[in-house]
Design goal:
elongated, 9 helices, DNA-binding, mainly alpha, Tetracycline Repressor, domain 2, homodimer, 210 residues, 66% helix
DNA sequence: TCGATAGGATGATGGTCGTCATCCTCATTG
DNA sequence: CAATGAGGATGACGACCATCATCCTATCGA
């Protein structure tokens, strides 16, 4: 007996078959970066596998290396892009506020932010894991943490705090930023809603104080 | 043809062959817990494999399940034990100090502590990963974070801070603890020694203030 | 319009890891 | 002192993962 297997060239009508044009590739790349950004923050630096990320981006795992040289490369690019997006979103959100410092603190300590690390601050989501790495990711974090501190310093300035010869405002900025990040991380680690809300509220109020 | 394989009973003279007595088992268990404690803090919740931990404890991977039902069980027990040890060590270190609050803050923000997460505070080392788990580890963290905050509150009390009708001292304790944890995590994430030291120094001084 | 280039899919490979079955050896108990 | 129970070692299994070879096919330049 002879068995003939015919594989008909089904252009699977269900999925939006990925195109092959340059703009399609750029879109694919952006989707991969976006998915990676969320998954990394939500599941950790080593959480999502290449296959999972590609599937969530509507692709299969094999094509990954047409876009990135390695998983590490994707992680580095994705987190750098995440910081850029978040900085832009923050700037936009604070632009219209008459109390930018308070708005910043409220945003950061919002219950929504606490409940959704995959869409929130990449520092709070991944800091303790980044501390164990070396290379571009850690370097990016160093830059962005420094930038965050300067941002808080600027917000304190707009709130009327004098710089001070002894760098008092800079100290204040460092302390408030550390408190915000620590408070958010602790609130997320904690099981008890009451303690979580206490952490967020306390830290948020104190960071907003003028 | 017949092949006969003779396996001579070599009692490998090199290694300190583990005993089989009950006290030996207890010692093995303690070694496993101790190794796991360091590796988990140093490499993350999912860092060290069972085989790595057992080897570092002077054993082979197979015997692991004579001690623990699963890797998760080891993780939970190990971290609970770690908190106990650290609480005892802290209590001892602060007992003789005439400025317990300052000593606590100095200990926590010491360069030594920052450089060796594998021997330091399990909260700072693993908080952002614990936030992604559920079950006993997260429950333990919740308890211990609450205890840490109460500890800081007690230290503030010995420093002469009044409780206040509005819970001002409790707020102060929450804020200072969040700042300490956040500062340490950020200092570890950061690549630049100057920024790292600034974070530790600023946060340490402010947490010690009376 | 045709051929080269490259995006995407499929499948394989080598490595790692948690878990467990099995066996050997010793401590323990009667 | 013999028999039983258990600690520990060896090896294997299945799952998962990053990476890459290969093929198909659509785009794009000539």
């Amino acid at each position: 007996m002879m068995v003939v297997i015919l594989i008909v060239n089904s252009v699977s009508g269900d999925g939006a078959a990925m195109g092959h044009s340059q703009t399609d590739k750029a879109k694919s790349r952006q989707r991969i970066l976006g998915v990676a950004s969320e998954r990394l923050r939500g599941e950790g630096l080593e959480g999502p596998g290449v296959a999972e990320i590609m599937q969530a981006a509507g692709l299969t795992h094999g094509g990954f290396y047409k876009h990135f040289g390695s998983r590490d490369e994707l992680v580095a690019e994705s987190l750098a892009a995440t910081f850029d997006e978040q900085a832009a979103a923050t700037r936009e959100a604070l632009a219209t506020s008459d109390d930018p410092l308070g708005a910043f603190a409220a945003r950061y300590t919002a219950a929504e932010h606490c409940a959704h690390p995959e869409q929130g601050c990449a520092v709070a989501a991944l800091a303790s894991e980044v501390a164990r790495t070396d290379g571009p990711v850690r370097a990016t974090y160093t830059e962005r943490i420094a930038a965050y501190i300067q941002e808080v310093d600027a917000l304190l300035a707009t709130a009327g705090v004098e710089a001070g010869d002894d760098g008092a405002r800079r100290e204040e900025a460092v302390a408030r930023y550390a408190m915000l990040v620590g408070g958010l991380i602790l609130a997320r680690a904690v099981d008890d809603p009451a303690l979580r809300e206490e952490l967020l509220a306390t830290v948020g109020e104190r960071a907003a104080q003028r």
